[in-house]
Amino acid sequence: MLGRERAHAILDHLDRFRYATRDHALFITMWDTGARISGLQALDLDDFDAEDGTVRFVSREESETRLKNGLTGERLNVLNEKTVEVLRHYIREHRRDVEDDFGRKPLFTSKFGRPTSSTFRRTTYNLTHPCFRGGCPHDEDPDTCQYREHGHESKCPSALSPHPIRTGRITDLRNRGVRIQKVAGRVDALPDTIRAYYDKPNLGEELDRRRDEIAEAGL
């Protein structure tokens, strides 16, 4: 699972060295929204509203970008101001002006149109490699490490796919006091599903969540 501290270290590195690239725009949107990979892949350029600071997740099954829960998974998410800023600059400076096979303009692009889910996974693997922003804890030389080779990125012991990033974000929102019903609406998951599979606080985080309520109860 991706913790808040590590997520922000990656975001800080992207902000300094790869500002508003597709990787930066994708990762900050992924962390901000806690969306599934299918939701991120489904986003069109027009789904992002820079003026309102929102992004809309729409299920378009007829053009092969169905959300996991179909029409019931459609939602409008308010974005953090930093996410809006990065997306604005990405669209203006780095987004390719391309269409997918159905004539739609994806928000996140490749030279072929809409990136595949494998492309998104490979991006998160690379961004969560420790050597992306520092030294290697696995005693590998980044210049010769086999995990840096195309097709082998996921084999790095520290690499994370989109799912544990989603899990980390959901846990982070809960740690910071966001009610489970609000988290559920934002990430398109039932509260019971969040409790069972996504909300994974460590012992210290779990204690912090209870601390205020216990203190208020008194002796």
UniProtKB/TrEMBL annotation:
Highest taxon listed in the record's lineage: Archaea
Biological-process GO terms, alphabetical: DNA recombination
The keyword DNA repair belongs to this UniProt entry's keyword annotation: no
CDD domains reported for this sequence: DNA_BRE_C
Database matches in InterPro entries: DNA_brk_join_enz (IPR011010), Integrase-like_cat_sf (IPR013762), Integrase_catalytic (IPR002104)
PROSITE patterns, per the entry: TYR_RECOMBINASE
Tyr recombinase domain segment(s): 1-212
UniProt xrefs under Pfam families: Phage_integrase
Keyword annotations of the record: DNA recombination
DNA-binding among keywords: no
Protein name: Tyrosine-type recombinase/integrase
Species per Swiss-Prot/TrEMBL record: Halobaculum litoreum
